[in-house]
């Protein structure tokens, strides 16, 4: 498919321009999903992987999940990759906030409820899947669902600290289940005046980093979008040097 990293770089520069021009059918406020998945696909090419999974945690009315499916459809067609998309939701909306860390000044119990989750499910393409249940339970069971595929992009839109904390096992599977530097979009870390590092998704990230020696989540500050993070899978065989990637790693904004 590619002879060298120069060809890969040029291709994904063109893809980045196409995303921002709206040519993938992704809505402008969901461009971060398409750009994040583009980085995941690009890195998978460097690794020699072609069977990928993208995840959205927190589906609500399904707009984000449908946009992620449109981006995945583009990459499936362009590179002939297998890319499946999974959305996780409880269909009941937000639970009761568990104190100040869950930003009760912003959200309340029942926000984002979608009891008719079948209405979302029937609109998905054949490679789109909806998993309904408590995220703390459904995420833990997802490693078996992944099989030998590689997680290539995650969107976290769970609002609360407590919900995000319960979902963090998604980043603790066997290292071979990921690309080595996993793009992650955190929706609720910017924009509102009361958001801060001691509450919400930011606190869940901080605690995850303190609790895990070989998995670290850090924001990538080069302008792709302000909520663009990387989960560094430091125990991945490629990052340990026991397996060589197909192409040496590069990451650049596009």
UniProtKB/TrEMBL annotation:
Gene3D superfamilies: Vaccinia Virus protein VP39 (3.40.50.150). It comes from the Bacteria. This is Class I SAM-dependent methyltransferase. It comes from Methylocapsa polymorpha.
